[in-house]
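Dear Dr. V.,

Thank you for agreeing to look over these. As mentioned in my earlier message, I'm a first-year student in the group and I'm still getting used to reading structure tokens, so any feedback on how I've presented them would be very welcome. I ran two proteins. I've put each sequence directly above its structure. The first is here:
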Amino acid sequence: MNTATPAHPANNFDFVRIVAATLVLYSHQYALSGQMEPSFFGLHSFGGFAVLIFFAISGYLVTQSWYSDPNILRFALRRLLRIWPALAVVVTLTALVLGPIVSSLPAADYYAHGGTWQYFLNLRFIAVYILPGVFEKNPYPLGVNGSIWTIPIEVLCYLVLAVCGLAGLLKKKTVWLAAIVIYLAWYFSQNSPDLYHSIHQKREMGAYFLSGSALYVLREYWQKRPWTWLAALALLAGGLLLAKMRYTALLAFMPYAVISLGTASTPFIRRFGRYGDFSYGIYLFAFPVQQTVIMCLYPEYGFWNAMMLSMAITAGLAFLSWHFVEKPALRFKPSKNTMSNTRFCLPERINFYALYLALFAVYFSYLLIFWPGILGEDSLAILLEVESNREFQSGKPIFWYLFVNSFYKPFNLVEIPVIVQILVATAILARILTYVYNENGKRPFFILLVFVALAPHLVFYTTSLYSDGIYACALAGLLFETWICLRNKTVSRMSFFILFISIPFAIFARPNGIINIIALVVLAAVIRIPKQRLGLAAVSLVWVTVAFYGVANHKHKTPIGTVYPVALFETVNFLQPHAMGLYPPRVSAPAIQALESVAPLDLIIKYYDRDYWDPLIFFPQGPALASMEKSQQDILISEFFRHNLWRNIPAFMSSRVNIFLVSAFAQGGFPGPTYAKNVLEKTKSESIYRRWGLERAEKALMAIHDASFENRWLLWSPLPGIILLLFVTLRAFNRRDLPALTVCGILLLQLSAVFFFSIAGEYRYLLGFFASPLALLPIYREIRKSDEK
């Protein structure tokens, strides 16, 4: 470890941070005294304004830290050593020393109370503000340390920066600046207080943090002409103020003003921190000190006297914290030469079984918390189909019924088929990720691990009784093994294993899965080794036999098919009235008669939803068009392809694009994590809802899930996978690369099927394209390697 203490920097950042920390203390004094906090030009309280200053400075300095040494382990250790030791001391002293002194509870009861020990969750960056009986009669009751709410957000910003750095986004500064611009544009369009009249604090802090980061990247430009930049941004802010965009004006101007002042070296001011950086200590200690002073001396001692006494005590504690906690901890910050050998933490190769166990542990832990799994209406439908011996039919593929019937019915436990899904999915993920790590390197491995394999929504769907999560993983596994086998012209034992567990879910668990059988046909044509061809035939025959058995013995009473739904949905779309009245609906008379054979035309038009066909089919008060007789369905389909489609191409294409984008941006419906309770009550299942009682872990996971869901348009997007697919297709076509073209061709057919035949804006239909980089990224890396040779 580096035990040398760095020299005091010749800049103004210490001064700016101490002023900001003092502003927080000043602002809190009003709130803790039961008064309204003063505001900064009516935008934020002075404390809130100071927090934004901290985040802008943090974005600048933490980005500087990354660029000076882009090593994830050393970066994480530096951040931890800066933020955690003082936090640990404050939390411990507050809970174990101050708490029992000021609590209304006897000391024995205080220490025996669960809330006392729950306060230590702050050390895991989970904000807890209350200690039993502490400050309960203060003007601001119960709040022990309200300042610590920003610490988890600060850590989240560090984490985002580290992950982006690990993914290579910071390697090229233009790419990182583009990513920041995208975030700021999204923040402005979706969360700007000027537009929505409410402040989303976490996202606003993220905007200031990233603004500071951008200023570090651009420093070589603005440091040459600081006053020109200041004038230009002042003019921009002034224009925004005239346009009544006050919050946007602050975001445009304040980070630069703060960073330019901080990086300057002003006489006297630059020596402000020569005795230490007390800002973090002031920020952490001020709140409990102020509450204690107010409890003991306010209002008798007066507002200003109480504040000055609090300030003096806080400054003393901050001095001690710096010299006896923070500064000694920083002596252990690793230098560039420390831990430089990444083999110490990251082996040159990883083992499939070790990664399989690790991934299974993550997915199974998720299941334990949300026991017995994520269940929705489709889960209920398939469970009722199994329990009723298909008297009730869900309309799902026969293989999915056979799978659930095999693993649910003997035990009446929903978690059994979910566990089987997890076993299969994590085996496939481990196989692909092991290959990527060992053959393509650590960076692509971490990209796929963090952004795909451990993406909260992929874990969510894989631990649900829905076929979509396991289908997405199985599709990636089938395509990956197809590529490996075609490239090597041989089938390894591992490939046989992955193909065996992937084929049933990738081909037979979803209606569009039949397209994926192309992979097996191409493999059979290319693989020439007799034993391996025989093995492929045996693997395929097992599952084809199961599928044929299911179809032969478990007929659908009222099969809906693939073509009838889109013909029905789009025909009703073509009937929608146009306010301009330029032309009447262009639908043939036989098609209208077929619709009217089930329900009045007005009722059908009334229940049309451009995003979902469900109201036309499933709503009790709706037209229930699924009951249309087979002969009328044939007429509707025939008229659709002979007349109605060609007369309404613009309406058809706009409807297809709408459905696709609703799915791609995840705007449709989703099963809630807690909906399983409702499903279990309607079935004969013996599964116990939340059997293990992991409420605290569930709360933490729900926070992650909610954050992911709130940003699903970005974090869940299948568009990167689709863009990668198009790019790899072009490269493979130019090279006449049969293995890569086979994979890309299947995915393009799947994409076309989803685009032209979807009748609901369900994100899960595109989940396979979110997971497609698992197969496509290794292919892309191999193509690049070949081109470089």
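The second protein is here, in the same arrangement:
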Amino acid sequence: MIISMGLSAFGQNRISNEKYQLTFLKDSLKINAGQFGFNSFTVFNSSNTKMSLSVKLGMPQGWNLVNQIEPLLEIEAGQSITVPLRIAPSTNSIGNIIYPVTLYVTNNFTNNEESYKFLTKISQLIKWNATLPNQILNITKEDTIPKFSLKISNGGNKKELFLVDFKSDLRLSHSSSGTQVLLAPGRDTTLQVFIRSKSKISTSSYVYIDITSRGGVKQLQQQVFFISDTYFAHPSKYANLTLNTSFFGLNLLLNNSRFGYFETDGVYDLGKNRNFNFRYRSGAVSLDDNFSPTFRQFNYFSTKFQASVGSQIDFMNYQIDGNGINLTFQNSNFQKTELFGVKSRIGNVDMIGFRNDLMIGKTTNMKSNALFVRDNKFETTNFFGMHNLFLRISNNQRLVLIGGYSTEKAIKIGELQSGYSYGYRYEANTKAINIKSNYVYYSPFFPGITRGLLITEHEARAYAGKLYFGAFADKNNRQPIIYTQENTVANEVFQFSNQSFGGKIGFGFRATSMDFSVSKITLLQDSLSNPKMEGYKGSLNYNYSRKNLNNSVNLSLTRSSLGDFENGKQYNAINVFANSRYKKLGLMATYEYGPNYYFDFIYLKNTGIYSERKNFSLFYEAKNYNSNFINRMSLGYMQFFKAADPILLLRNDINLNIPKIRGGLNIVAAFDVLRPKSSPNLSLVFKRTFNVPMAIAPKYHSIRLFLFKDENGNEIFDKGEEPIENANLVINGNNVLTNKNGFASYKNSDKGEHIVDYRNVRNLKGWIASKGVRDTIMLSGNVNIGVPFKKSKMISGRVVFNKEYATDAPPPSLNGVLVVAVNRKGEIFKAITDFQGEFFFNLNDDIYNIQIPDNIFGETLLIEKSIKTVDLRNASSSNLEFKILQKKRKINIKKQ
């Protein structure tokens, strides 16, 4: 979502050293482990014309942007746009390390790219740990009161209070919040959590556990499987199309301007990093039956080739908006080529375009754009090519060389004109100096929005610790040659000329930064015969940013004259912008008085009235724990010029996320408090996601297994032989249980290799799968397979406490202790002890190492001999015993 705010009605020629100003809501962002981070950036167009900016976000590897941002921002003169950023750090991010997040902004008029950074920091956990000894709990119909264990250990040197919260759709023996555990240094404890009810809507569920203590929160997931004789890899044998739908109803209470439209997009996964996707947006229908254009786009995506057919929206020195085709070819990470053809909806215009991005080595990048445009209405043809060569001279220096060429033909008079562009961008950064120098020129016949445009921007800074001094000089003007009189006459047209030069001083210290600049300005618009606006401008920018408090103030004072208007009288003007936010409460204020802009002077000359604009806004934002409900209220006072009626706008935004229906609702209500009956406004957006089966042909297939005891060893189920019931199988990592007839089904699975693991069959003593404990099935259609079990050799045993065990603390439970057997091939077999500490393995002839993890009972207890070797080649069975001993204290005696 992009939020746009109008700052002035006449702000067509704002004077500034930069043509736009970009600020982040937070210059530094602290993100708790496992959580999202929120920031936003605001771009203010301080130029005199509409500005087109391309934006992209650079983040550390593995980080993701949860919300989508529009790659192209178009901002009217004197307007600003605020874009929210919701960032999900990588789970591999290191705590207490600062990570930069960089926003790259390209001015599409000048092709100048700037970068802006804010810093993020991931909080670090202190020395304690919480674990789930068995993260996967399998529940069968035989389990009356199943449970899982949560172990918490304090490895620090002070008492630690832990707060444990459980969130699940299951009924648990512990409340969702309020469980407290106090542990002394070096001690641990185990919580037994019973599950009181089973899930009725799925075969699996999660228990989300938050353990909070000093320094952070640890989040665990206990996965619970309700095992039956059938597992569904996919809900249906048909593939699903993921369909996202949205309905937009805007201005619903305004009879003359209400309208709505419908939007949907879908993705069909083809596998192997390929998919087919589409997007459709209906035309916006208003009360008087007006329609806006419909958007239809169908796309194919793969890692090396992408194709798009239908509506195309893009920008390449022209606004591209129409119907056509786009083909993109990707050659590894070094070259990307794009071709497109579009029939524009903005007039009767045909376009053919080309892009190429080529990486040459590690320090050079060549980007080329070319576009052919035929305007059938005005009978002109244009062609241009634009090239940027990016050179990294060193780690501190960057250079971009810019060159372009063009032709333009007015068909009516048969006149062919040539155009060109050239320029450079240079940047050098060291600890002592910073230099930026940009020069770009487009000739009067160069097609597109940059026609006849000259941009020069230069700035140098010298740093002395936290303080810096600088100077700058800018000159921008546009004087294109445009065909008139039905494209039969070419005339040179003057549009604007802006100049400024001056000095700047600033500093940054901890959470505070400030700069002050003074400049000489000269502005002229529309005609060379118009009077010039000339004078001086002083600007002060102040920023303060802490965890919960952010303040910024921008103040500018201008003293200028307009040619010989009133004998060259000097007029004073002021422009103030302030923004403050404390936690969830914020305030924004803008005040402008006097001729800040060129057209303010024209307005003063024609009417004798000083321009005065006011905009004050107070807002508050509230949300629940998981951000499924967000409410933002604001009250804003606006008056754009003295003669206009003021507006006192009360607005409320509600964002409701509804996970159970995979949907959400956004409601915006607003009205003018001063005129509540004349200007109510209500808009809403409803979104929901569906899975639609594509019932064309089955995509998935099923496996049906039959387990039985093969008494005579012929691998055939004979009369009198016994089916194996309640046997737990693992197929491709998923659990399935045989029924009383020995059958288990794995349904609606993808084609390809399926691994069946029989090692989890722990309810059957003395029997083992005849063809090995693991089997591979190549699935290409529905299959039925009989699985014979033969008599096996067996290792049994138990875990016991040594007779000398004595401690004030109660002994740990012997139930659920993991015992591992490893053969000479490295195959691993697992068993879990019962309440008496007993276990067993069904195994083939081989030599096995039977072991229990050393630290399973904490730091005060140990296993007498944690690894034991058993040879089953010449024996049918073996019985073991593992003894738990109490660690002895170490006493250091110093000699006197």
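From my reading of the second output: Residues 1-17, 889-896 have pLDDT under 50 and may be disordered. The first strand starts at residue 3 and ends at 6. Does that match how you would interpret it?

Kind regards,
E.
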